[in-house]
Amino acid sequence: MTMAMQESEARTWSPLGPAAPRPGQPHPRLVLTAPGFVEIKPHTASGIKSGLTQLAGRLRGAGRTVGVLATYLGVDARGRPIRTGRPGFVRVNATLVDLGTTPVPTTAQYSRPAQWFYLGLAPVPPKVDHPPVDHAPAFGWAVEPIVQRQVMQMAHLQTKNRRWVPLGGPGRGPDIEYSELAQFYRELAQELRDPLYAEIASELEAMAA
Asked: Beta-strand (E) ranges in 62-209?
């Protein structure tokens, strides 16, 4: 196999992940119980490899162990992958990455559908001006906000005292951060030296206890 063929195979390798739940079937929930990051990448071998590497690095840098890799795949209304043109939907999948059990995550370790959560089909509004699906990474930048919203709607942050922080963009760190509200206000109090924020942090911590 030539290098060009290997690169083509890497771009198009695309296990769909778990099957979509049938009508009336319970939807498996992605539950997040500790602060962490979400990386968003195309659901291809090269995209998953890049996402795992970036996510592991961000988690280590922040002293955290568990994060989420969310992936997108351009599909039609029936969930079938679209290789060219403008898809009407993106299929969103996600998997938990735990450095405590997998210190060096690899693509091969995340090739089984059972390891992924299906987060649904997110419609791409016709008014959204985006390039064709085969024009990566421009397509990914265009649909990233749509994928962010789908992740935040479908994943569950355990306890009410947590928040989503949409981030992202080329070279701008993780795509989403989920963190403790109490932690956020505590850091804000220290930065601004404002006792009001420290009081809010204390109240939130007491509510979560």
From this structure: 66-75, 89-98, 117-123, 156-157, 162-166, 176-180
Q: What end-to-end distance do the CA atoms of the chain give, in Å?
A: 58
What six digits make up the tokens of 95?
């998997």
Residue 159: burial class (beta carbons within 10 Å; 0-12, 13-18, 19+) = exposed
Q: Are 97 and 68 in contact (CB under 8 A)?
A: yes
Q: Is residue 203 part of a domain?
A: no
Residue 189, pLDDT score: 75
Residue 94 lies in a domain: yes
Name the pTM for this structure.
0.73
CB 186 within 8 A of CB 174: no
